[in-house]
Design brief:
By secondary structure, the chain is α/β, with parallel strands linked by helices. The protein contains 14 helices and twelve strands. Helix content is 48%, strand content 13%.
C-alpha cells in the first residue's frame, strides 16, 4: 500500500513558523521604510495603508498556500522561490484593492517596484540565514535530543526520514525498536539500526541513552502499546504516540481539538477559515475578467445556437455541487435533446444528437463558457472537480470508492484531471476512476498556487482535446 506523505506534527516547527510570521510582518514595514528613506520621502498615512493592506493579504495568501508549513527536506532555493511568488501575489492584490476600494492617488510604479525588490531580497535573505543558523546550531549539538522509534512500520520509516532530513529540529534518530523485526532501515543512504526488542528500549531509556520515544505501532497492538507506556512511565523520556491514521485514504487531513479533546480529520475539505475567502476572491476576480473579455464570443455563440437549431440557447443541467447539493449548471445547448433526468447518455464521437455546431462547441469546450456565470453566482469555482450529471453521480458512487468525496469542494470549470488528459467520454470504469483519483488529489493538495498552475495549463491543453466530443 502506498504511504501518503502527510505532515507529522513536530513542536519545534511551530516555534520557527511563529518567528517567520513575526519577521515577515516586520520586513514588510521595514522594506517600505527603507525605500522611503533612500528616496527622502516622508512616511505618510498612505504608506501605513499600503503596508497594512499588504500584511493582511500576505498572511491570507500565506495561510491559503500553506507557506508556514515545515520545509523539512526541501531545498532552501525552493522555499525562497515560493516566498517570491507569495510576495508577487501580495503586492499585485494589494495594489488592486487600493485602486478599487480606497481613495488612492495614481501609484508610483517605480516606487512600488523598489518596494517589491527590497521585500524579495529581505525575506529571501532572512529565510536563508534562519535556515542555516538553526541548522548550524543543531549540528553543533545545541539542544539536541536522541530519539528512538518504536515499530519498523511505514509510519515509523516515514517519521525517521523526516527527522533525518530535518537536522534543524535537533532530533537525532539513534535507532528503531521492534519485537518482530531486525536489521536496519535505510534512509537517504543512511542505515538506521533496529537496536532490539521493546524490553531493550525500556532498559536503554532507563539508562539515559534516549530523550524522546516515538511510538508508531499499529492501533491493533493496543495491549502492547499500553504495556510499553506503563513501563516507560518509570523513565524521564518524552514519549510521543504517532497514530497510524495513514492506513486510511486521508483527504485533506488536519488535527484540532474541542475543549482539550484531540481530533484528527480523515475526510475533510480544504475550504475552511481564510481559505474560503481566498478561493471566493479568486473566483470573483478571474470570472469577472474572463466574462468581460469573452462577452463578444458569448454573443456570437448565442446567435449561432439560436439560428442553427430550434430550442433554448442555454441548457441548464442538474448537477451536484459542494456537499452534494444540486445546482443548475449552464451550458450552450449543443444537442437537439436536453436529457436531465434519471438516465443521461454521455456524448460520443459522431453522436447524432448534436446540433450543426454542437460537435464543434464540445470539442473546443466553448459550450462550457456560460459556466463562468455559475462561478460568479457562487455555485461553481474556476478550478475544481468537473460536475457530473446527477444520473452519473448516482451510478458511479456505488462502484467507485470515495467517489462522493469529490463534492467536498465546489465543482469547477477546469480541474487537475482535465489538464492531465482525463476529460471527455468516460466509456470505461478505468477512465472514471482515473478522473476521480485526480479530483481527490486536487482536494488533498489544494493551494492557491495549484489553482493558478491549472488555469495556466488549461489555456494550452485543457480546452481542445482529442477525447472531447
Amino acid at each position: 500500500m502506498e504511504f501518503r506523505k502527510q505532515s507529522v506534527l513536530l513542536g519545534n516547527a511551530s516555534l520557527v513558523a511563529a518567528i517567520q510570521r513575526i519577521a515577515d510582518v516586520c520586513l514588510i514595514v521595514t522594506s517600505l521604510s527603507v525605500v522611503c528613506f533612500f528616496e527622502q520621502r516622508k512616511w505618510l498615512l498612505s504608506h501605513w495603508v499600503m503596508v497594512l493592506v499588504a500584511i493582511v493579504i500576505f498572511q491570507l495568501v500565506a495561510e491559503a498556500t500553506d507557506f508556514y508549513r515545515s520545509w523539512r527536506g526541501v531545498p532552501v532555493a525552493k522555499e525562497i522561490k515560493n516566498a517570491i511568488i507569495l510576495i508577487t501575489c501580495t503586492l499585485c492584490c494589494s495594489l488592486l484593492i487600493l485602486l478599487l476600494f480606497v481613495e488612492f492617488s495614481r501609484p508610483d510604479i517605480v516606487f512600488i517596484a523598489k518596494w517589491y525588490i527590497s521585500l524579495c531580497i529581505s525575506i529571501s535573505v532572512f529565510r536563508f540565514c534562519l535556515r542555516n543558523a538553526v541548522g548550524y546550531l543543531r549540528g553543533k549539538g545545541y539542544n539536541k535530543k536522541n530519539a528512538a522509534i518504536v515499530g519498523k512500520t511505514s509510519v515509523g520509516t516515514y517519521l525517521g526520514e523526516q527527522l533525518i532530513l530535518s537536522p534543524w529540529l535537533g532530533i537525532s534518530v539513534v535507532g528503531y525498536y521492534d519485537d518482530n523485526e531486525t536489521g536496519f532501515v535505510e534512509i537517504d543512504n543512511e542505515k538506521i539500526p533496529v537496536l532490539g526488542e521493546l524490553e531493550q528500549l525500556v532498559n536503554d531509556a532507563k539508562g539515559g541513552k534516549i530523550d524522546r520515544i516515538y511510538i508508531t505501532l499499529p492501533m491493533c497492538h493496543e495491549k502492547r502499546i499500553r504495556e510499553l507506556i506503563t513501563e516507560l512511565s518509570d523513565t524521564t523520556c518524552s514519549v510521543l504516540f504517532v497514530p497510524d491514521i495513514f492506513t486510511f485514504n486521508l483527504l485533506h487531513s488536519r488535527s484540532f481539538e474541542i475543549n482539550g479533546i484531540p481530533l484528527i480529520s480523515i475526510f475533510d475539505t480544504p475550504m475552511v477559515g481564510s481559505n474560503v475567502f481566498i478561493k471566493r476572491i479568486e473566483d470573483i476576480i478571474l470570472s469577472s475578467i474572463i466574462l468581460l473579455l469573452i462577452s463578444p464570443i458569448l454573443c456570437m455563440i448565442a446567435l449561432a445556437v439560436k439560428f442553427t437549431s430550434s430550442g433554448p440557447i442555454i441548457f441548464k443541467q442538474n448537477r451536484y455541487g459542494i456537499d452534494g447539493r444540486e445546482i443548475n449548471v449552464w451550458k450552450f445547448r449543443s444537442m437537439n435533446v436536453m436529457e436531465n433526468g434519471g438516465s443521461v447518455s454521455q456524448a460520443k464521437k459522431g453522436d447524432k444528437r448534436f446540433t450543426p455546431i454542437g460537435a464543434f462547441l464540445r470539442q473546443t469546450s466553448l459550450d462550457e463558457l456560460p459556466q463562468f456565470i455559475n462561478v460568479l453566482k457562487g455555485d461553481m469555482s474556476i478550478v475544481g472537480p468537473r460536475p457530473h450529471a446527477v444520473a452519473h453521480n448516482e451510478q458511479y458512487r456505488k462502484i467507485i470508492k470515495g467517489y462522493m468525496l469529490r463534492h467536498k469542494v465546489k465543482p469547477g470549470i477546469t480541474g487537475l484531471a482535465q489538464v492531465n488528459g482525463w476529460r471527455g467520454e468516460t466509456d470505461t470504469l478505468e477512465k472514471m476512476e482515473k478522473r476521480i483519483e485526480y479530483d481527490l488529489e486536487y482536494i488533498r493538495t489544494w493551494s492557491l498556487w495549484l489553482d493558478f498552475k491549472i488555469v495556466f495549463f488549461t489555456i494550452f491543453k485543457g480546452f481542445i482535446n482529442k477525447n472531447a466530443y
